[in-house]
Amino acid sequence: MIFKRTMSVGTLRAFLLLTICHSARRCLASAPELHQPPTSIAVVGAGIGGTAAAFYLRQEFGPTVKIDVFEPGDVGGRLATARMANQEYETGGVVIHPLNLHMKHFVDKLGISTRQDVPSKKAVFNGSELTFEESDWFIVNFLRMLWRYGLNYLFMQMWVESVMDKFMRIYQYQQYGYSFTSVERLLHAMGGDDFLSLMNHSLEETMRAEGFTQVFLNDVVSPFTRQTYGQSVRINGLAGALSLAWADSGLWAVDGGNKRVCSGLLYHSKSELIPARVTNVSFKVRPSKTGLSTGFYEVTYVGDTGAGHSTYDVVVIATPLHQGKSDISFSGLSSPVVSQFPGIYHQVFSTLVHGVLNTSYLGVTRPASEFTVSEVLTADSKDNIMYSLMSVDPVHAPAGYNRPPASHSKVWKVFSPRALDQEDLRRLFLSWDSVSQTPWLAYPTYRPPQRQTPPFILHNRLYYLSAVEWAASSMEMSAISARNAALLAHHRWHEQTGRIDREDLHTRLRGEL
């Protein structure tokens, strides 16, 4: 919101190592004799996780394997847009962090243009008035924060920086082909016991232990967690730290909509898109020519043309299996898949409104033409009907685009815990001509301690991407999980155990040198 954070020495070193050693991971040790690659792989779900999985599976298994991606809806999943006032606007994930290296790699590889986030000003609303409003002047913002909270905001930036430095380690591990069988093992490779502690303690507990004041948590930290996850500072510390990273500068998005990354990855992976809903995954055994039995998965699905089924050597589930998110059943497995994992997904409503904002509802007394705030974050108060209010720009802004002032009709996005009714709209807007409301089960309800996360491996060659969301949910976390699943599937297929659940990367690198 105020301070601009630069890449630290540790982060820069990780980035340079990733760049220099782009192809080096195969050179760490001579690989054992490879088996024949699988003949067919199924990916269930065509969101960012599923399409990234198809991309990485193609990279790991080569050009001969057949990859089918099942998706009953639009490619992109929770990355979606809606049309309003003759323009397209994001209804799902809006911006991408500058240190999200997988997402950066995708757009570079696919040749997709990016659009820099239009500069914005933030304010915090407590349900009756604005308790903070950014100035155009850095020094004014700095002095306001210093007067109210001492050095808390600066220390928060430093704390988030330290978490991000550890987070960046996963790129080194994955570049050298390391994979992990559980969320806990993956997190431990990133940040050791500290990251496991973050996942099992609330952000509030964690930051209080670091010396942050409760007033600062209520006034500053909580509005960011509400904007990102629609939840309070009682979410887990890792998800909370990543949500605070979105206070950073340099955020960006994809020109034409972030969902373009998904369609691009699908095309680049040379996968076949099957527009159907998967209803069952069954493990079966059949005899082979050698006399030994071999196992395979039968995927049953329903599409516009009716029901069907196909067989696969490997299956990757890239859609949440929690209650309310999926009705896929599993059969024939030696140990049953728990399709209804503990925990629930958090309900949030994303509402696009093309209209004129009622600035007086926010307690603003000056003319609307002078109100230049574009992001209204909210405090955790029973009087607030929303998590956040944002002025949003079209996914493809024409040359010379300028964000209209609040006195003009433009598109606003409201995140709220319930559907907005006509009375809510009348309170928030003086007038409007179109409304588009989308209910989302976008991310888990975070209630630490998270004693056990869903597994990455559901069965021998059956993998699950959405397990990672129980640590934190974002486009980049899904991409990390997709990369991990592809590496895990490759190593286990070829019986290469040397880079599964190992944290000896730096030791091995020193040995190579």
TrEMBL record:
Keyword Metal-binding: no
Keyword Magnesium among UniProt keywords: no
Cofactor: FAD
Main location class: other
Entry GO CC: lysosome
Name of a matching Pfam family: Prenylcys_lyase
InterPro entries the record matches: FAD/NAD-bd_sf, Prenylcys_lyase, Prenylcysteine_Oxase1
Subcellular localization: Lysosome
EC number(s) reported in the record: 1.8.3.5
Domain Prenylcysteine lyase: 132-501
Domain of life: Eukaryota
Catalysis performed (reactions): an S-polyprenyl-L-cysteine + O2 + H2O = a polyprenal + L-cysteine + H2O2; [(2E,6E,10E)-geranylgeranyl]-L-cysteine + O2 + H2O = (2E,6E,10E)-geranylgeranial + L-cysteine + H2O2; S-(2E,6E)-farnesyl-L-cysteine + O2 + H2O = (2E,6E)-farnesal + L-cysteine + H2O2
Alphabetical keyword list: FAD, Flavoprotein, Glycoprotein, Lysosome, Oxidoreductase, Signal
GO molecular function: prenylcysteine oxidase activity
Cleaved signal peptide residues: 1-29
SUPFAM superfamilies registered for this protein in UniProt: FAD/NAD(P)-binding domain (SSF51905)
Biological process terms in GO annotation: prenylated protein catabolic process; prenylcysteine catabolic process
Similarity remark: Belongs to the prenylcysteine oxidase family.
Function noted in UniProt: Prenylcysteine oxidase that cleaves the thioether bond of prenyl-L-cysteines, such as farnesylcysteine and geranylgeranylcysteine. Only active against free prenylcysteines and not prenylcysteine residues within prenylated proteins or peptides. Involved in the final step in the degradation of prenylated proteins, by degrading prenylcysteines after the protein has been degraded.
Protein name, entry field: Prenylcysteine oxidase 1
Lineage of producing organism: Eukaryota, Metazoa, Chordata, Craniata, Vertebrata
